[in-house]
Amino acid sequence: MASVGTLSLFFPVFVPASAAALAYAGHRAFYFHWRVWLWKFLTGPGRNSRVLLLVFLVLNWKSLPLAWTVRVFHAFLYHVLRRPKNLPPRALFHFSISSSRTSLLETDYNMHKSNSTYFADLDVSRSHLVTHLLGPAMATVGDNAKNRLVLDKDGKAVTGGFGIGLGAVFCSFRREIAPLEGYEMWSRILSWDRKWLYIVTHFVVKGKVRPTGWDGRRMGPTRNRVVLADGEKSGDWSKHVFATAITKYVFKLGRFTVHPAIVIEANGLLPPRPDGWRGGESETGTPVDLGDIADVDGETVWDWKHVEQERRKGLQYAEHFSALDGTNSLFDGGEDGSIGSFPLG
User: Fold this and answer.
1) pTM of the full predicted structure?
2) Which InterPro entries match (predicted)?
3) Which of 14, 164, 174, 284 is most open to solvent, judged by the fewest CB atoms within 10 Å of its CB?
4) Which domains can be identified in the chain, with CATH numbers?
């Protein structure tokens, strides 16, 4: 399991360090003669080579050294500073949308975005989603000695630094993305079980799809919601999808695994539910009978039954993905031999 970061270090260490670095850079910028330097850059000897190099760097900035770190930490800082204090319950399964563009250095010999580069984009897209949706809850769960949200079998508060572990990523490629072509990453929570939080991300043609609304301030154009007579929603939006990925995250306090529902609930996104219910099962492990899902004026009420219905719908896909963990047992160490060992792997 690969760790993708710990917010126990982010807030006390990286935020102050980043603020100090920006303050120093701003201070030094006042003493730099930008106009003189820019004029020499554009008109001095060797200007053609410098301008071409600058254009190349601009077109490929996301593939440069430390660019991934800048993109991920930008997501953290952005939502720390600009996230709304309260999100509506329906936001739990809503999409987080972020945009990008294929750089030349991401292009493979088939002249489209290399399959391996999708995973760096996924890191950024998931960082936006999880920080925006669950950021405040992470700080609350991280201070578990005070808040006592996570208890061990003896009823004692679990201690340790809060972190997020990346368990696995699956990506299904449908269409290629051309060099310098823009695209959007639509990420949302798919489901969760006792251990894993599942996230689905769609790589979508840029500008072709717009949401019907925003949770909070307006962040771009929207489209009208159209519902057919039989209740089905119109529009085959999948035709605009380049690829779809599923990720599973695990929340940790030290070495203790935290139920995803605890983190979601700590952020106020789980409605009141029957005693003992968490993530669709009672304390005895028996699935809860949902009965009829309530509707008011054609809109589904976001009570615990609706949340559980959405969780089970996504879990139908997530369970198949999770079952692939068993393929680890297929490795036999070359019991019957191997075809060879090759350089530059």
Assistant:
1) 0.83
2) HotDog_dom_sf, THEM6_lcsJ_thioesterase
3) 284
4) 2-19+56-212+237-323 (3.10.129.10)
